[in-house]
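Researcher: I'd like a structural prediction for the single chain below. Treat it as a standalone chain; there are no partners to consider.
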Amino acid sequence: MKNIFALVFALILTLSLTACGGKEEAAPTETPAETPAETPVQETTVLNVAASSTPHAVILEQVVDDLAEQGIDLQIHEYGDYIVPNTAVEEGEEDANYFQHIPYLESFNAKEGTHLVSVGGVHIEPMGVYAGKTATLEELSDGAVIAVPNDPTNEGRALLLLESLGLIKLKDSSNLEATPNDIVENPKNLTFKELEAAMIPNAVEEVDLSVINVNYALEAGFNPSEDALAIEAADSPYVNIVAVKEGNENSPAILALVTALQSEEIHDFILESFDGAVVPVA
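Model: Treating it as a single chain, here is the predicted structure.
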């Protein structure tokens, strides 16, 4: 009996020791490493700009990377005329254009009922007179034919240049939209062939002289500083601008574009690339 009692006592003691024994500490739960916050993706703004191919599109190409760093995807669309780039901006197909000067913009708005405004000047393109059948200004004969642009502002500009050379005299030299009807003195009885500005380089050999906008002269392979018989003075009021539809002047992408085009880097690029045929604004 004693043996049985001792055996039961030993068993109870063993169970008691086991129940009171130290608990193993649970392994600490590993706290998952914090996931680093994702860098927010910069939203890209597409900026569509209409431009003449030379020099405007060439200059725009120089700011593509600069704008890309600011999240702006500059898309350059080249046009070969002076009408569609404006109607495209008016209708919202393009965000801006870069091809014209203020007198042309103002004339276009008045004629077409558009609502375009300048947001900044970039450069001047001095208009030039080029030889055709007649090689020099001194050899210009009585009744010679001179090709001039047929749009109001560029025709007036061409006639003002011819007036500055002493070939004609206008009724009002301050009229930027003069036409051949405004000529009051024409000692050589010159005849004027009015053509679309873009087409004049193709007609150079058909007339005695041609007055050509620099961008079209460059496209045709002329070097204005070497090939032009005469060229506008560098203080020409015809500054080429970036234009947008009224109400979009303060768009961040537009402001960034103008800032880039007016930078010192673009100023130097224009001076180095166009040999005086294109002059940056101060």
